[in-house]
Amino acid sequence: MSTPGPAPVTAGADEARRLDAADPLPTLRGEFLVPPAPGGAYAEAAYFAGNSLGLQPRATADRIAAELADWARLGVEGHTQGRRPWVDYHELLREPAARLVGALPHEVVAMNTLTVNLHLMMATFYRPAGERTRIVIEDTAFPSDSYAVASQAVHHGLDPAATVVRLRPRDGEEHLRTEDVRAFLEREGRTVALLLLGGVNYLTGQLMDMEAITAAGRAAGAAVGWDLAHAAGNVPLRLHDWGADFAAWCTYKYLNGGPGSVAGCFVHERHVRDAALPRLSGWWGTERAGRFAMAPDIAPPPTADAWQLSNPPILALAPVLVSYEIFDRVGMPALRAKSERLTGHLARRFAEIGADVVTPADPARRGAQLSVRVAGAGAAAERLAREHGVIADAREPDIVRFAPAPLYSTFLDCHRAAEALAAVLREK
Ligand SMILES: *Cc1c(COP(=O)(O)O)cnc(C)c1O
């Protein structure tokens, strides 16, 4: 956190610096490459877009370079003779990924990208039959998820308009109530084949009660999957205990794996041994021992690896391994505690300036993100970045999202965000 030059001395900045210095979990900002601020009092940006693309760990470049070096030195032998042999490289991510999402090691696998994994999971777990054909998502689902479930309906010869149910908050409310999801499932659950929600809503930042909703979905006889794009690395997860059928997450948001980095996937233990489940298969989904025997028939292992298709992109896995190692080192409990302190501070500062925060005020019902309603979100975010070095993220027409990422965001960043937003709102 370098703040050379005449950084403004205000009560808010002083307080923020004191909070940074006294925090029980000192920032790991020094381990990340923080983009420069565009001039002004601060050398570095106040980066709040880690829910869109997390910052680059300094260790990442060397880790990719090591694989390039092994490729140069060994060619094809790198598969077995590399420092981290490529044929088993994804195994290195298994245990830290499992710890991050609260899974057993054989329930997780690093593969593909998020939307691809959602499709692979739906190929197995979305099995419309009889009157049980519907897919339930949230009305504010991320567009990729909407497109994915609609295309699954079409794939099964169903009409997406009749098949996809979008759960809406009550009139005048911003968030889905757990009791309403439960009531819907009690009423119409017999028609629901799949419940697929975001663990943390990308737009409002609402943290869902994944445990209660998973239980309600399963009690209704539906398959339950979670999109953890905004939850992984943000909030503590206990996927195994909650009993979700599947989950998938990207690794470039809170996990800092880099643009398009390899995603994660969870399949509950009760399914991994079920050889009768329909899957879309490829050679990386057969037992390791038999893979290079080029056997005519697939022999899936009793793990989430059975859903793998291809040999993984090692250069895109290397940064993800770096990320999981950082999360493993710090641990989600400490990180979540710091996240609540940072986001709580930002929420207080936003309240002081009269910002219209749509994210739940209860810390237990949100992660690291605060979404603020600002007319002309795009122009506002642009000004925050250009004039104040505060990088937030606009979702048109009227939401600007701020995510203090507890690995590298600071109380001083939160102070800067509040000052900058106040200035932008004042000049509207
Ligand atoms: C970021 C995000 C995606 C992006 O999907 P990719 O397949 O990684 O491009 C999908 N769904 C949600 C909820 C997201 O937040």
From TrEMBL:
Q: Which Pfam families match?
A: Aminotran_5, KYNU_C
What are the protein's UniProt keywords? Answer: Hydrolase, Pyridine nucleotide biosynthesis, Pyridoxal phosphate
Enzyme category, top tier? hydrolase
Q: Where does pyridoxal 5'-phosphate bind?
A: L114, T115, F142, P143, S144, D145, D227, H230, Y252, W283, N311
The pathway to which it is assigned is: Amino-acid degradation; L-kynurenine degradation; L-alanine and anthranilate from L-kynurenine: step 1/1; Cofactor biosynthesis; NAD(+) biosynthesis; quinolinate from L-kynurenine: step 2/3
Cofactors: pyridoxal 5'-phosphate
Question: According to its UniProt record, which protein family does this protein belong to?
Answer: Belongs to the kynureninase family.
Protein name (record)? Kynureninase
Q: Which organism is it from?
A: Actinomadura parmotrematis
